[in-house]
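Here is one chain, start to finish.
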Amino acid sequence: MRCFWLVLALFLSCFVAVAQAIPMESLSEPESAAGLPVTDAEATTADAEAASDAAGEDTVAAEAPLVVDPDDILRQSLPLDIATSDYYALLNWVRSLDLDETGSAAELRQRLYQHFDVTAPAAAAAASRTIAIESADETEFFSGSDDGASYIRLSGNVALLVTDEVSGATHSVKADEIIYNRDANQMIARGHIFYERANQGSTDIFMGDVLTIDLDDWSGIFVDGRNTKGGDSEAQFVFEANEIIRRSETVMVFRDGVISSAGSDESNFTIRADRIWILGGKEWAISNATLYVGELPVLYIPFFYYPGQEIVFHPVFGFRDIEGRFVQTTTYLVGAKPPKEETISLFNLVEGDDGYVRRVEGIFLQNTEERQTATNADVIKVFADLYANLGGHAGILASLATLGPLESLRGQLSLGYSRSVFKLADGSYSPFVIHNDFDSSWNIVDYFGVELPVRLLADLAFNARLGPFAFSTALAFLSDPWVSRDFMQRSEDMDWLSFLRQPAVDSPPGKRTTFVQRLDARATFSLPELSPWLTTLSLSSLQTALTWLSKPLPSPTDATELVLFRASPTNEFFVPDTWSVLNASLALGGRLLEYPPSPRPRTPAAPTEQTAPDTAPAAAPTLSPDEPLTDWPALLLPWDSLDGAETPPPADLDTNLLEPDFHPDGALAAAALINRKPFTAALSWRLNPTFKWDTRFITAAWLEPADVDWSVLYELQNLSLTGGTNLALTVFDNLLSTTIDLSGSTAYQARPRYTEDTAYVSAALLAAWRLQDAQYRRDSLSGNLTMTSSPLQDFWLLAPTALTWKLQAALYDYRYLEMASGLPVYESLLPEWTEERIKVNSLQLDLVVRPFDYQQTLTIQASLPPVLESYSLSLASRWPYGSLAFQTGLRHLTADATIYTWNPVVATLILGQTPWPVLTSTFNWDIEAERPTNLNLALTWNGLRGNLRFAYDKAYQLDADEGWVAQTEAFQAADLAIYFNHVFRLPPLWFDRIQFSSTVTAEARQSFLRFSTSSLSLNLSFSFKIFEFLELTFSSVSYNSSMWRYYSDLFVLPAEFGNLEPINPIVDILNGFRFFDADDSLRRASLFKLKSLSLDLVHYMEDWNLTFNLTATPYLNTEIQNYEFRTTFTVKLAWLAVPEIKTEVQRTGEVYTW
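Its structure:
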């Protein structure tokens, strides 16, 4: 027994020695089960651990540093062996080498790297793709017998989710069985496959039986597959094929493929093709394809290619009547064309992404894998166009957001080479007519004496800022008025639908008869050193502008040349008309006096070494015998700041205690009195000088461009100056406030230069100019005085009560009087207490009380002499469910009147509140005539509105011989109007799929002054709708111009009319709709006359909408002097897959329109 223990002890000693010499490594297989992710990085780590196993087995313990051959496999595996060892293996390793055992695993690894003089292996890259096993009934790991690759087999309700961190795409795969080859990074799925790929708003769905896919580039093969493509757009399409080959994330090939619309088991349209290529970037192609509507083939397409990638010069083809066939090209040198909104929905088979950097490959702009990091607003593009009839056009356009001091820059230069286009007798256009011997008449432009066969359009505009100055300019030049119409109707997006629809009628040609070249400057200066005396100093405008006008060339006398002349777009030219040499205006202002002065921020003292820390309390101020008490701060409320700035009370302070809804007395206002400033004064000034200098040219003398010599017709200069001062005084805030405003202005105008050529300046014209200049000269000074007192401002209940006096007077005027001996005579007017010089002299008292926050206001206003006297009284009262307004007054009609005339009394009463009935009444009483003049009663409730009006007016009596005879004026009922509108909806039926609704709109009017003036209009609409199947709407508009016949016994009729019995309104209305009776006498006798009748039927057929419309309106047939119905029948068929393609058949009478 003792021997046994000795042998066991010896064995254990040997085992410990061997264990200390051999580093222990953790051999672990990457865990993979349902719900645990397996990443590429983990797979790499598992391989590294396996390698470290082999290396660990061959490691030999040694006390001294290991010396090995550099080519030895052991030394090559040492860095990876150290990197993959765990903490305990590293601890045993350094212990066996008699190295320091302290520190973390990273420190131990670094110690071993230094000991063996090896370099740590490069860190593995972060995992860019994660494979998560969401569900699987069984999981199996095995190795291939042939290639030895590592496989993972998942079976039974398998669901995988693959997330690509680089592209942001997610791939979801569901199948009966999935085999994952870890070495080749490939996946094979079998049975009930559902594969969904989502990436930035677009979704692809595949369904099939067998799927083989490479996870590196997402290429693969689907057998018996079905693919649904769609995204943010409404149009989604389904692709089916016997075999779907996916070569990358964006490139797919369908063999024996079918394209149909998504959302329907039996699509109403399909495209069947031998090959379908989806090439990414909205690019696709089909070959040997047939378009089926239902099961009916309607179009064979041998091959079609839609270039999703834009061509670098963006060609656009089209046709216009005048220009003929044309091609327009635009090439961007800087920037990119805005994304195109495709007009044909079927072309959006593939969702594209425009957020990538593009490069030029051949003639296409190809998306790269690099995303755009920022949008560049700068654009520089060149364009070249060719027109079959007109000619050619080329140019360049630049639009830059910033360029040095320029905040924006936009410039364009276009050159056109064109010929005249003539309108033929049949309405078409051609450049070849008999007048030019069927040869081209190329347009020649005269540029002020230099003739060139080039038409020009130039434009330059920019905004710049330099210090306080801001500049803007707009410089344009056109060779003729028609150059914009001929060459600037351009597009950069091809509209393929334009070849399918009927060409639209050209809009009337636009003619540009003027353009302006201008340069503006503005500036705002900040001068804090001069504040507050000068607070505003700005250059409001500093502008020079040249205005050009179009002018026709002299017409030739020869008839043939006249035809050519009229067809030429260059038969007019531009001439300078007016040059605004200088237009400048300044704005200055400031404060001359302010009491008390505005508080200025205090400058804190510089800290010293003896400065107490922030937590030390501030030292209390000490009073010096020589320091005046006025320099000490006054008592402050807890929420007031030391610098005088107003701050709100604390948030937790109960504001109801400060401002209750009702104040019985002024006891609670004592706190407010503390904040009142006893006296404030502010005196401000303003000054606005303006100078304008214009030059007008003799455009009448320039018959041709060569005649333009810039000769001056006249120069006009005017100077105006406005300014004023404003003095504002307050005593205890609004207890008494006074505002005195003085405003002055002066204006002067002269023509220092004008032509002496009597052919252009006659004596009468010169006299008119002198009169205009004399009338422009004027000086004025006016004053405004406003005094307001709110003595009850501290009593919340009566606080808005105020007394206001306003006085506005003309203090001085220097104005034109007349012309004497060719010279102007002026007069000076001084202040006078007269109606002419005193503009306003009014006194207004507002007595306001607001119990429970409902304001009641009584206003007394008086206009006092010397202005025309008037006195008014108004009352405005509000309460929870109504309001009352009342006003009247008296006045002098003329200045010399001694008797006052009363204004009518106007009273308005409103009772009620929505959604309940609301009654509004307005009553007018003429005090002078002592009679009412108008009473209007209106009642409104939801869709019902009634209005009854009384007026002092004449009624009319019907006489068999004399007709309508006016009666004596009296206050009586004038008319009654009733309006009704309501929509009736029945509860939905059949699982909310069937719905009935009806709309009734009726309006009745009856005059009590002339009973025959009455009418009734009735609009009826009935709708029946079956969800996503049918919608039927019937509507009619009827009108009765003799509604009084329904109650004719209420009126006094002449005896000649006999006993006119009232007509039953319900029977009469029904008779008006007897359209299908063989005997239409009842319908003709009905007072209700049909104005229009329409029937609309819409049949929804998933991919198609079929619409029927029948409209009937009566019209007077002048040949038989009888009314007949004009019917219009319309049938419209629209294809929802391509909503732009639709057909419509319309019949109006005997006229058919397709």
